[in-house]
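Ticket #244: bound-state structure for fe (ii) ion.
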Amino acid sequence: MQTRVDEIADKIYRLCTLMPGAGGSAGFTFNQFLIDADEPLLFHTGMRSLFASVSTAAATVIDLKRLRWITYSHAEADECGSLNDWLAAAPQATAAQGRFGCAVWLSDQALRPPRALADNEVIDLGGKRVRHLSTPHVPHAVDASLLYEETTGTLFCSDLFTQMGDAPALTDGDVMEAAIAAEKVYGFTSLTPRTAPTIRRLAALAPRTIAIMHGSSVAGANTVPSLEALAGYYETQLRQAMAD
Ligand SMILES: [Fe+2]
Ligand SMILES: [Fe+2]
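RESOLUTION: The complex was predicted; output attached.
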């Protein structure tokens, strides 16, 4: 397996590994995102089986010993499975997650004590600024959180907009059709009364780029309409489920 590196916004790099056969014959991509700043940050680690490939790719962007922060959306193998491999490779790095995420998983599992973040808390990376967004059950899991990089307007939305198969790193096109197709196969998003309002909160940030964990990231005029359409889709799904 080979991990590809693409810069999707200024000094924000997508590390993409296509797993052939996963998620059907077209394969499935696992994407981590590396923010190069005075204090570099990695969002999502990938599974332990991907560590060699993903860390080799990351090392083409930065010296891994410079890595200062590692964070992720929620406790699952693809989001944070290789966390301790990264902490071992990057002695200066601290894992960071929401307070609830630290309480239910991270404080127990991480090699070193993590930093617990409050909703809307900002870490100044030096040249980049990341805002922690507490988003319980969006995309799924009670510890779910997302990240927003303020200087580039990049929203790291984890499993939202998951698409199957391989595709370009970045598109200005519409990914909704592919995202709904994947949702119909996997049913991976938690549907709660807070799903649509939480996604509308993300739209209100007016991100210029949406960094997506599985599939193409989105930049340009389609970002906010895509988030609004996704919120509307889940709202309709929830209404239909309640009416059944
Ligand atoms: Fe997930
Ligand atoms: Fe994922």
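RESOLUTION NOTES: The helical segments are 51-58, 77-80, 83-89, 99-109, 176-186, 195-204, 223-243.
TICKET STATUS: resolved
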